[in-house]
Amino acid sequence: MESAKDEDNRQTPKVCVECGSTTTSMEKTEWGIYPHWYGTFERPVCKKCYVRNKWQEKHVPKDVKCDRCGKETSTISKYGTPIWVRDKKKKDVYYCKGCFVIVRDTGQNRPQEARKNIGIGIHKALDKGIIFGRTKYTLEESVFDTITEKPAYWMGILMSDGNISSGKTGNPRIALTLAKVDYLHLVKLREFLKCTNPIKPKKKNYQGIIIIQYYLRFSSKHIAEILISHGIVPRKSLIARAIGLENNRHFWRGVFDGDGYFKNKDGKDADKMILTGSNGLCAQFEEYIKKNVPDAKVRIKRIREYSKLYISSDTARAVAKLLYSDCKIALSRRLVKARRMFGWWE
After folding, report:
1. Does position 193 have pLDDT exceeding 80, yes or no?
2. What domains are defined for the chain?
3. What is the pLDDT, as a whole number, of residue 104?
4. Surface-to-core class of residue 323, CB atoms within 10 Å of its CB (0-12 exposed, 13-18 middle, 19+ buried)
């Protein structure tokens, strides 16, 4: 018969000495399903803690050294265990984490001095402007060398809706993002560049509404240098200013296609044209309008670090005709409203 002490011990709930849990895994026997505790009667351990304590003995190798550098210590993980990587092709061969990364990325073992020389060579090449990376897509880099109608127009739309950034390899990346309805306009840009880059969709969250946009991104150091020389610089939203294109109507048509807005008269409101941009760019557009449209009435409203340029009535119709008459390239929905505007005027 059980003593009173044994009866009390059997009925007293066990508590894991590692985590304080009062439950453990259940074990099914021929007599029923019972909780299975590890450790001793005085120091019970639940199954989770038991497995956690034993996994190192099973998975972490002992008394090994790196086959490449010969070190007997390796990088320590956040769990306090050394990180060893086993060679899949050789038996009982291990690498420390640093050597494994080198072997994985280079495919061969190199001495320390050779790795140092490679790093120095890469930095010198980047300083000289050499671009690394595989050429996956192609394009015609000379399309912006001569400023005619199409190059000037695409510079304008890149000024408003484009951006230039630099990748990890030092290769400048140029991108143009437009609304979903303007997808075919990106096709025209791709044809102009003669490039094989794909046009990809992306989602934008605007005030809780998901908007689908499309973008074309390509890389070219030569084209980036030309764009920068004309004022299309990285992070240009609030500092954009045209350089050498201030009097080019095709450039301003591209700018307006990107950040402009037409409002045709409807019996209540007159014809309107509105351009949103940096303070400097709006001031340049105002100067261009006054130089080419007699008695032009232009109003600029500054909103913090950017501006809105407003023109209406006769001035709007004159500017629409100036920018969009006899043009070979323009955003379709802008062109329709512009022709409707200056067509009524005539």
Report:
1. yes
2. 59-132 (no CATH), 149-342 (3.10.28.10)
3. 75
4. buried
